[in-house]
Structure formats: structure tokens, C-alpha cells
Amino acid sequence: MKRGKKYTEAAKLVDRGTLYDVAEAVDLVKKTAVAKFDETVEAHVRLGVDGRHADQQVRGAVVLPHGTGKTVRVLVFAKGDKANEAKEAGADYVGAEELIPRIQNEGWFEFDVVVATPDMMGVVGRLGRVLGPKGLMPNPKAGTVTMDVTKAVNDIKAGKIEYRLDKANIIHCPVGKASFSEDQLKENFQTLMEAIIKAKPSSAKGTYMKSVTIATTMGPGIKVNPQKLD
């Protein structure tokens, strides 16, 4: 794969054989952000678990102290008082059954997170085939199936992110933008790591944190020393 000149120059700053501590990694990730737009900084965490087993799933949500730097659009499935509550909390879209054909047939996806009250999950379940593959299905573990829609919307708007294993047992999460200060990125990153460590399944054997890498959207990966995180 041919890399651009900017990427090649940025990659020279990173020693691929070094495991950096958090402060060094964050310093480097800012230096390697050379795109014309404000790149997202992402953490990629490979865990020593087997997500095919239900008792080794790692999934949850955490509010990043400095947010993600991204404006998140929230859709809430609710009725009556709860629908009004969601609107007052600042949800971008609120509705019920009438949204099903719009999403299913018209391919409407102008939202980033879906929240639902428990009584609406029967309705939302009909969208499983389209919401599931996009990672948009509400889930109690992530706090997106709840009666407290005000808290759910406020948390998401404040920078709540969901973390979950992919098929290769890796978690991919944003921890901010390249324009954030080093302290902001460090605090966000450490908050995410603490949540993942706390979510360690009791059935997990051997090394839990196999590898931790941070990178900007267009930049090279920077390896963080996982020993310094536990």
C-alpha cells in the first residue's frame, strides 16, 4: 500500500519497536497529526479474551471527561412523558413506530446513537437487521435502554462512548481530537483504559491487555506499554 509523503514523514517520528508510556504516546500522536482537518485520535486495544464465549464478552460505556470533540446526534424511541423528557434533554430526534419505515425503507440514518425506553424495545427490535450491523442497536449494558432518558441523552452529549470487542477481540474507541491538549487526551485515554480494565471478565485467563495502540485518523500507530496501565 502506497503511503503519502505526509504519512511517511510522520511515521519517521515513531519507533515501531518501542512501547511508549502514555505521556510520550500522546505527545507523539499530536505530532503525527498532519492532515488538513482535525483528526480523531483513536485507541485500539487487543484483549486476551475470546469474545465468542458469552462469559468473556467485554462491553460497556464510559463518559470521557473532555468529550470526543464530535457533535453526537441522538435518536430516542419513546412515547408520552418520556418522549417529552427526551426532547427537553436535547435529543435530536424523538419518535416511535412511525420512524420504522423511514429507517427501514428510506435508509434514514442521520443519527449516531439510539436510545430506547424498555417498553419500546419490541418496536426497535424490528430494526435489528439494519441497526445491528451498524452498531446502533440500543443495549442495557451501554445504558441506551433505560427509563432515565434525560441522563442517557445528557451523558451521550457530554462525551459518552461505547466500547465493545470486534471479531478479532479488539476494542476501537475515539478518545478525542488532535486539537485537544495533551492533558485532555491523556485523561480521556486513561478513563477509557480504567473502564476496560474494570470490565475484565472473571473467566479471562493469561494476559488481559495484549496490545494498546493509539493513532490519528490518518497517522501511524503508536504502541503504548500495556504493563503501565494495569
State the main characteristics.
alpha/beta, 30% helix, 4-stranded antiparallel beta sheet, 230 residues, 3-stranded parallel beta sheet
Folded structure, characterized:
By secondary structure, this protein is an alpha/beta fold. Helix content is 30%, strand content 21%. It contains 8 helices and 9 strands. A 4-stranded antiparallel beta sheet has the order 7-1-8-9, with helices on one face. The chain has a 3-stranded parallel beta sheet with strand order 4-3-5, covered by helices on one side. Helix 2 (22-31) packs across helix 8 (182-198) and helix 3 (80-89) runs parallel beside helix 7. The relative contact order is 0.27. The model has no long low-confidence stretch (mean pLDDT 91).
